[in-house]
Design a protein that fits this description.
2 copies of one chain form a homodimer. Chain A has 121 residues and is mainly α. Chain A folds into 2 domains: 68 residues, Winged helix-like DNA-binding domain superfamily/Winged helix DNA-binding domain (Arc Repressor Mutant, subunit A), CATH 1.10.10; 42 residues. Helix content of chain A is 67%, strand content 12%. The first copy, chain A, is built from 5 helices and 3 strands; from the N terminus they run ααβααββα. Chain A has a 3-stranded antiparallel β-sheet. The first copy, chain A, is rod-shaped, with a radius of gyration of 25 Å. The N and C termini of chain A lie far apart (74 Å). Chains A and B meet through helix 1, helix 2 and helix 5 of A and helix 1, helix 2 and helix 5 of B. The structure holds a DNA duplex (30 and 30 nucleotides).
DNA sequence: TAAATACTGAACCACATGGTTCAGTATTTT
DNA sequence: AAAATACTGAACCATGTGGTTCAGTATTTA
């Protein structure tokens, strides 16, 4: 289950690809919570929730600490910086690409028009 | 393989959770490419690359069109808007949460200091 | 000390993933 | 028409995922 050396972006995007896990992150941003509390909130067995928390922990998005019999989950130190950066950069590439294509279309239109002119001359 | 009704965020984050697929997106932002070209660039069989492209297509991040025997892959219409928005919102929650915790710590420090004063009085 | 609580680990399940090979089909190219 | 190219689908493989149950252990609480 542990997945030692997945590249960090792989791990965090994978962690974010599950509705329950995104929900847990939002929950923890409101207040720390025990496994039991999370399991109840998301209608799941303790064991099931433990696994989700494990995935989030592995990705550095959550940290946990056990005191007595209760394991408390908190937000981790990673703030999705790299993930935000990757997506932001992609959006810029996307924009650039579509602008480029637009220009090519414009170019073609102008040429067509010019050809039309020629024929009519 | 197809995964008909995965929520869109699930599908796109899952699509982004693989290094090869992120690479394909970057590649396509530079120029359209055939399956063969992508497969070569990423040292993979045609069949393997086809699957990755399938995942990206399913997530709306890539579109493909077959002309003759060549299937050309292009960037899709989704620009990772929702994904960026989710992450941005999370970062704000994260900030808020940590500020909150800081304030609690400050509060405790002040109290401690006050107690110290009292004892010394 | 007994009972309740909170978690943990192993084992299982069905299905997904990331890859492969192999055997096609359809479309160029020669 | 033959050969090369480009893809496609099925089948297989090992491993991961999202969940469960069951049988514990450790820690409170009564």
């Amino acid at each position: 289950m542990v997945q030692y050396f997945r590249p960090p972006l792989d791990a965090s995007f994978a962690a974010l690809s599950d509705t329950t896990r995104r929900g847990v992150l939002e929950q923890l941003s409101r207040s720390d919570a025990s496994i039991t509390e999370l399991a109840e909130k998301f209608h799941m067995t303790l064991t099931g929730m433990k696994k989700h928390v494990g995935v989030l922990e592995q990705a550095g998005l959550v940290t946990t600490e056990k005191v007595g019999r209760v394991r408390t989950c908190k937000l981790g130190l990673r703030r999705l910086e790299e993930e935000a950066a990757w997506i932001e950069r992609y959006r810029q590439l996307w924009d650039a690409r579509f602008n480029e294509l637009d220009q090519i279309v414009e170019e073609l239109k102008r040429k067509e028009k010019a050809d039309g002119q020629k024929k009519r001359e």
